[in-house]
Amino acid sequence: MATPQTQRATGLWAGLQEKFTEQLHVRLESIVVLVGLAVIMSILSPFFLSVSNFMNILLATSTIGILAIAATFVLSSGGLDLSIGSVLGLSGVVGASVAVNLGMPTPIAVFATIGAGALAGLVNGWVITRGFVPAFIVTLGMLGIARGLALVISDGRVIYGLPDWMLFLGQGRPFGIPMPVIILIVVAIIMHIVLAYTRFGRHTLAIGDNENAALTAGINVDLHRLTLYTLSGGLAGLAGLLFATRINSGDPTAGISYELTAITAAIIGGTNLFGGRGSILGTIVGALIMGVLQNGLNLLAVQSYYQQMAIGAVLILAVFIDQFQQRQETKV
Amino acid sequence: MSNTTKKCAVGMAVLTWFVFSAPTSAEGYGILMKTLANPYWGAMGDGVEAGAQGAGVDYYIQAVESDQAAESQLNVCNTMLERQPVAMITAAINSTNLLPCLKSAQEREIKVVDLDENLDPAILDAAGIEITFSIGSDNVLAGAQGAEYMVSQLGADVIGPVLVIEGLSGNITGEKRATGFADKLTELAPGLEIVASLPGDWDRGKAANITNDIMTRNPDLVGIFAANDGMALGAVESVFAAGRGGDVIIIGVDGNSDAVKSIKAGRLTASVAQLPYLVGKQALENVKTAIEGGYVETNVIIPTLVLTKDLIDAGTEPLLEFVK
């Protein structure tokens, strides 16, 4: 495939960009921003550049990272899942309830946590594909239902005292690396491979790019959608498990507004809000950009209100850069 | 340099604009609050600053977006440890969310202080965490003082329904106040029945809704006790909106500036004032003493004071100086 003649200033940069996009399926710009931000933060704070601080950044990003992976799949297919924050809370409460109130062993509790999330996702997917209700509405409704259900099951109270084996998932540090970080890395690698290199992934992007063309090409769009929303819910359940085991409680208020943060991370990482383009590696970079920003500003004792403003600004900036680039590419 | 790289550079320069620098000494005190939105925590922050300046130490105060953001607070706590403070003074959102961070602090020999009695001693024991000291009000006593005042206004022989609005579920401070109130009420006035005890999550809006619902169910409600002022003020709005202002005794806890205004205006009946300014100030002073090897009690209690319109108008009570 010949590189079209565009008005790019240096061949080296363009060549690198292409390599990153086609080989690794991640945008070079995102990585440059992440590294640049890390450099700035290490100049501004002597505490930034240390192994334990990097571990903190990864640990703090783990829950949102898993949610952002869920968001990437759904957004890439042209869908939207607003319920993942509430499903995170519901799953955590279900898992804690099973472990503490019902006294079941850890594997059953873990299964129940992820299963609850997947079930919620399945319901979402079913209503979207069979009921012809738009994803925005269905998942918005599930946002309320899941949150309410979490409060009902927990009676509005936090459920304490998870068993040790379960706590290990959130607080264990094998070889000095926090378990949530290990789980995030493993899930991210698997999901990246799925989205970028398998037929399932290609179909996901195809549906998001042009649903009619995908249908014509013989893809079972409805079944695929159903699978995606179930996957999204299951990942939200996993995130709920990590959250609950990190703070040792099933908290019905867990995950409020997390869905917006997850979508922000996916978009900063290069996922297109309207579908057709997305990469897990990009999303992780996006989540890390937010994580580095928050960690750096925390180290500098900047109040969280300014942090929220900064993240909003980064989001707009990221999409602006993306749109600008798209314009550049279409100029011949 | 391509256009994209230029844009990236500009973007990063813009981001740096948002950054404020702060003292980066590795000898400071780290103070982690819940949220600065409630004036109670604002006053405590002022006290902390006064205490730190008096003691001549470096400090940094952080807070999170809301008093429900449990995971955020844990993340901020972990980050604060990176600055290698000599002491971490924390106001935990619930009894377990900061445990991993406090454990880590203990391993790094950083002194841990429980600001405002948010940690449960039993849970700390089970986790093997030893805190240097805990400072705050006696929340059980505060609840009891609320009950005493309510009975003094209604009379010990009155029969009627009472509503209790609890704090955030799982927060030991709220639990103590609610229990303290309930036990004392039963002891002093068995005719006053608590018809509902519901969590308001420290939220004004939630408390307003709870009050509306319970007033619908019990139109002859005589008293409301809320575990903090924010929620009490929410209850006040509902009661007055229903036209029953003056018929219901409403008591909050904290004595923050909004509550004081409301009491002066004759809306909120009373508030069991904590002295957050004093709590913050003495917390810092005691940490300095502990670090220098001096003796500090494991549980430092700061008194609480029932604020009423008469008390505020008279202005003679010495502790009023610390009500901010």
Description:
- The complex is a heterodimer of chains A (332) and B (324).
- Chain A has a single domain, classed as ABC transporter involved in vitamin B12 uptake, BtuC (Orthogonal Bundle), CATH 1.10.3470.10.
- The model of chain A has no long low-confidence stretch (mean pLDDT 90).
- Chain A is mainly alpha-helical.
- The longest helix of chain A has 27 residues.
- In chain A, 52% of the residues are buried.
- Chain A is globular and about 65 Å long.
- Chain A is built from 14 helices and 2 strands.
- In chain B, strand 8, helix 9 and strand 9 form a beta-alpha-beta unit.
- Chain B folds into 2 domains: 161 residues, 3-Layer(aba) Sandwich (Rossmann fold), CATH 3.40.50; 152 residues, Response regulator (Rossmann fold, 3-Layer(aba) Sandwich).
- About 3% of the residues of chain B have low confidence.
- By secondary structure, chain B is of the alpha/beta class.
- In chain B, the strands form 2 sheets. A 6-stranded parallel β-sheet of chain B has the order 2-1-3-4-5-11, with helices on both faces. A 6-stranded mixed β-sheet of chain B has the order 7-6-8-9-10-12, with helices on both faces.
- Chain B contains 12 helices and 12 strands.
- Chain B starts with a helix and ends in a 10-residue tail after the last helix.
- Classes of the chains: A mainly alpha (332), B alpha/beta (324).
- The interface between A and B is large, with 64 and 51 residues.
How would you sum up this structure in a few lines?
Chain A is mostly helical. Chain A has helices at 11-24, 28-44, 51-76, 84-101, 106-130, 135-154, 164-171, 179-197, 199-209, 211-216, 221-246, 258-268, 280-299, 304-330; strands at 159-160, 249-250.
Portion of residues in helices of chain A? over 70%
The CATH first-level class of the largest domain in chain B comes to Alpha Beta
Total domain units of chain B:
2
| DSSP summary: helix tally of chain B | 12
The chain-level structural class of chain A is mainly alpha
- The CATH topology of chain A turns out to be ABC transporter involved in vitamin B12 uptake, BtuC
**Biggest sheet of chain A, strands in spatial order?**
1-2
Query: What's the structural domain tally of chain A?
Result: 1
**Mean pLDDT reading of chain A:** 90
Extended strand count of chain A? 2
Helix and strand string of chain B, N-terminal first?
Answer: HEHEHEHEHEHEHEHEHEHEHEEH
How far the N terminus sits from the C terminus of chain A, by CA atoms, comes to 16 Å
Largest sheet of chain A: 2 strands, antiparallel
Fraction of helical residues of chain B = 40-55%
Radius of gyration of chain A: 20 Å
Annotated CATH architecture of the largest domain in chain B: 3-Layer(aba) Sandwich
Mind telling me the CATH class of chain A?
Mainly Alpha
